[in-house]
Amino acid sequence: MRLATILFALLMFFVPVATASDTETTTEYTTENNLNWVQDFLQKHVVSLEPKGVSASITSDGEIVRDSATNPSFDVTAGSKFRAQPDHHSSLNFEVLKVDSEGVTLKYASQFDHRSFGKDKISIDTGKIKLPYRSKVVTQP
Q1: Which domain holds residue 126?
Q2: Is residue 65 a part of any domain in this protein?
Q3: Which H or E run includes 82?
Q4: Helix (H, G, I), strand (E, B) or coil at 44
Q5: Letter string b/e over residues 105-130, b meaning 16 or more CB atoms within 10 A of that residue's CB
Q6: C-alpha to C-alpha distance for 97 and 140, rounded to whole angstroms
Q7: Which terminus, N or C, of the chain has the lesser number of Cβ atoms within 10 Å?
């Protein structure tokens, strides 16, 4: 009986202390706050984007891949998904909304986890972007 009383007293002391320090992670949703950054990212990492009938062919420098594949060249149609190579804190995902004669319209979702940097927050930004066709630039040696 005495052991049970001691255990009960310890639990009553430590449980409130443990739960008092737990904070809830907040999620912040925004629309097109990262649009310029996403445009710069695509400009830097898409080597070529060329029409291919009702689809388009994307070649990246390896930073953009389709699904779980690591091949930097792939074809997309409306509904296709691809992503930037993830890291420990962020992700950037794309879905093709439309392929037309001018290029590819994409929906993007970028996510950043601030918890490793002392903030109990996750930021999610979504938006749409038009990616015009461009051919691979060939440099002469």
Answers
A1: 24-132
A2: yes
A3: strand 81-84
A4: helix
A5: bbebbbbbbeeeeeeeebbebbbebe
A6: 36
A7: C
Q: Answer whether residue 45 is part of any domain.
A: yes
- Length reported for the chain: 141
| Alpha helices (H) along 21-94 | 35-45
Query: Which residue type is seen at 23?
Result: T
SS3 140: coil
Enter the tokens of residue 20. 């008092």
**46: which 2 tokens?**
């898409």
DSSP letter assigned to residue 66: S
Answer whether residue 41 is part of any domain.
yes
pTM across the whole model: 0.79
Main-chain phi, psi angles of 31, to 5 degrees? -125, 120
In the chain (141 residues long), the average pLDDT of successive 10-residue segments reads 57 49 84 97 96 95 83 94 90 97 97 90 97 78 57
